[in-house]
């Protein structure tokens, strides 16, 4: 016989009947497990608290703590340890209730040795799988994550490469992009990857404050500089010394404040409001806007000299519709975040729900996706998010009806996620297109497609066959 190796796992057996304890100990030890015995629920719980137990086998009816009570307490002190309940014939109903309370399995006494070892093996395998899954998920998270930014698409990788490249210079960066694309995250990512990362990151929203308040916020003020200035206050430029100052919504900077910012950029100096002393700071400026600054400059609403100072490097954050591969990855990420926040156990998205998320055009970009997933997590009734938990706008794929032929008016740019049908298109063709698009949405799943279109799956098969015959493909 081979040398006995280290025990496969440590099992805690709780039963008030010494004969049962002994028999279980004998069987399980022979299988290579380390076995610990407890004569009642209380003793079992105390042993469990000491740690090192991989699985609990507990009798349902015991004096003191019953098996059910032990199960509940066990889940509180050691949530990762599974519990298998041993029940006498006739208490199966109670065992079923126990399963709902989180028991992994149950065995009805008397049971065969083979039954016992099988149930134990399965429970331990399940535990290993869950642990493996967690480790994989963590590795995947680390792989997908660049700081706190998530994505795998080529557009996302190009963005992060650029962020990395500009981080180490001290050059001023202008971050442009639609609302909700992640401009603020990009600004933080630049700071976190720069040599200033241990210095402060100070953000100011230029649109949130009226002109005079914004100036005292940015430059600070002296005691008595204006009514209400009871004491001296440092401005954000001073607070950001040695770090990064993020000026958000820079397009909203008033014509009066613009030259003052320009001066700090050019000379690196300024005065507090109401002061004569000049202050010098070492601050890296990152700005962001969802407006097109170049156009504002042309319209004389933004100073050209300031624009060139801010625009030494421009980072364009792509809209979500241009990095579609990131949708499922981001959706999964937000699902985990909000499931944890709301104490919900959710496995992910149904195929149909994922299809809808992928097909939608996300005009509100990542922020909209985040909000949609948060809402779905709250609404989801099953173990995962279903299409029914998504807002109508996301579930429906809009059709754009256009007049004129493919070359005629209205045949210009068709937004992503919208498909176009010319008025006057033969119905058979409309039907074929609709079928094709719905199939694509459902990753080729014909049953889901039929369900969505409200027709019989057989009809889907037949229509597809017809289409193939007309294509001349077998
Ligand atoms: N790549 C990403 N990974 C993870 N979360 C992201 C990503 N991009 C954006 N987000 C999240 O989306 C939301 C919107 O991002 P952010 O506030 O940076 O957008 P914004 O471009 O500054 O929008 P606005 O122009 O409206 O101010 C935030 O909650 C942010 O955490
Ligand atoms: Mg923002």
Q: How would you portray this structure in words?
A:
The protein has 474 residues and is of the alpha/beta class. It is built from 19 helices and 18 strands. The chain has helices at residues 18-30, 41-50, 67-77, 92-100, 113-144, 154-167, 183-193, 211-219, 236-239, 257-267, 293-298, 304-310, 326-341, 351-359, 365-379, 392-395, 427-441, 446-453, 457-471, and strands at 10-14, 34-38, 55-59, 82-88, 105-109, 145-146, 149-150, 173-176, 201-205, 220-221, 233-234, 244-248, 269-271, 278-280, 284-289, 313-316, 399-402, 419-422. It has a 5-stranded parallel sheet with strand order 2-1-3-4-5, sandwiched between helices. Strands 9-12-15-8-16 form a 5-stranded parallel sheet. Strands 6-7 form a two-stranded antiparallel ribbon. Strand 6 and strand 7 (149-150) form a beta hairpin. The longest helix is centred in the N-terminal third of the chain and has 32 residues, at 113-144. It is flat and about 90 Å long. The two termini are 62 Å apart. Mean pLDDT is 87; it is low at 406-411. The structure holds adenosine-5'-triphosphate and magnesium ion. Magnesium ion (MG) is lined by residues 183-184, 248.
């Amino acid at each position: 016989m081979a040398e006995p190796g280290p025990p496969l796992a440590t099992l805690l057996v709780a039963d008030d009947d010494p004969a049962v304890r002994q028999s279980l100990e004998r069987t399980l030890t022979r299988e290579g497990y380390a076995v610990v015995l407890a004569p009642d629920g209380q003793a079992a719980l105390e042993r469990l608290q000491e740690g090192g137990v991989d699985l609990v086998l507990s009798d349902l009816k015991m004096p003191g703590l019953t098996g059910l009570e032990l199960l509940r307490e066990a889940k509180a002190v050691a949530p990762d340890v599974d519990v298998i309940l041993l029940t006498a014939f006739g208490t199966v109903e109670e065992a079923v209730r126990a399963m709902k309370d989180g028991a992994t399995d149950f065995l009805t006494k008397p049971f065969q040795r083979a039954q016992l070892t099988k149930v134990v093996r399965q429970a331990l395998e399940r535990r290993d799988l869950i642990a493996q899954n967690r480790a994989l998920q963590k590795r995947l998270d680390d792989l997908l994550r660049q700081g706190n930014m998530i994505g795998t698409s080529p557009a996302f990788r190009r963005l992060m490469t650029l962020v990395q490249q500009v981080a180490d210079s001290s050059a001023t960066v202008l971050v442009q992009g639609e609302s909700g694309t992640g401009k603020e995250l990009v600004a933080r990512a630049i700071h976190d990857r720069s040599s200033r990362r241990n210095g402060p990151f100070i953000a100011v929203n230029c649109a949130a404050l009226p002109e005079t308040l914004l100036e005292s916020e940015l430059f600070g003020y002296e005691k008595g500089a204006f009514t209400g200035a009871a004491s001296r206050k440092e401005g954000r430029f001073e607070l950001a010394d040695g770090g990064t100052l993020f000026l958000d919504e820079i397009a909203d900077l008033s014509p009066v404040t613009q030259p003052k910012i320009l001066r700090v950029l050019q000379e690196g100096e300024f005065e507090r409001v109401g002061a004569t002393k000049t202050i010098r700071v070492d601050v890296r400026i990152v700005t962001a806007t969802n407006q097109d600054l170049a156009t504002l400059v042309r319209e004389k609403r933004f100073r050209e000299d300031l624009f060139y100072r801010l625009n030494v490097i421009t980072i364009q954050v792509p809209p979500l519709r241009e990095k579609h591969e990131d949708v499922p990855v981001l959706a999964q990420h937000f699902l985990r975040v909000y499931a944890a926040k709301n104490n919900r156990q959710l496995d992910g998205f149904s195929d149909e729900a994922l299809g809808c998320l992928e097909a939608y055009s996300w005009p509100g970009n990542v922020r909209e996706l985040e909000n949609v997933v948060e809402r779905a997590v709250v609404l989801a009734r099953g173990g995962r998010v279903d299409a029914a938990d998504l807002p109508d706008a996301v579930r429906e794929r809009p059709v754009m009806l256009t007049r004129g032929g493919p070359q005629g008016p209205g045949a210009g740019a068709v937004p992503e996620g919208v498909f176009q049908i010319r008025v006057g298109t033969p119905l058979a063709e409309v039907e074929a297109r609709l079928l094709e698009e719905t199939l694509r949405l459902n990753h080729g799943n014909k049953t889901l497609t039929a369900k969505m279109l409200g027709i019989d799956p057989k009809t889907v098969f037949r229509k597809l066959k017809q289409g193939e015959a007309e294509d001349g493909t077998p």
